[in-house]
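Lecture notes, unit on protein representations.

Consider one protein chain, 243 amino acids long.
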Amino acid sequence: MTSLNEKKIKTFIKTRQKVSENTKLAYFYDLRAFVQFLDGKTLTQTQLNLFQLELQNLAKSSQHRKITHINTFLKYLYQEGELDQFFELKAAAYQSRDLSHKEKSQAKRLELSPYYQQIQNPGDLIVLLMLEFGLKPSEIQQLKWTDFNWDFKIVSISNGGLKRILPIRDKFARLARPIQNADELFSKSRQFLHYELKKSTDLSSAQLREQYILRRVAERATIYELAENLGLRSVYALEKYYR
């Protein structure tokens, strides 16, 4: 049996011609997570059982979707002769979105208008970069002021050799565009960024990033769009916000 990889995933997704683009994206993320779990190992029933155990930490609705996608993929591989044995994950009973209070995300959107008054120091800009784009300190360090295209209202974010393009909202542009150059800030150490951040807010970088996530969820961004905007390799970390 040949090892599973992203090329086989993309070939499989091309056969799903009648599904929507969002569904194709869901297939890609779910199947890539499955392939990354195998990490080049030969697929066996033991490996499949271990992966099924991993899924048990997710909501039933998420388990149901992932299992359906993976089983469809495995059936395709078997029919194409890529697998010499038919494998299948056990079906998970579907659970509606009416979950208990305990299962729901405890995170709440905060009143953030005080952060949008004006930029008076480096910490104020750091706060806005996290609230507006969900950036981590390490990603802020990779920025250049030329990455902000004010005419087209987009910013280019580089991380690990990958580049993603995010829209710039008017409220951010109004505050940040007058800045002549922020490259000196971007070149500072992570410790410096944290130090300056504390001067402007009691929230941590993780909490600010979470507020970005909550806003995008409220704007009805799909979990796959949000994962792509954040530069995530899987949607696992975002599952709790969509329960």
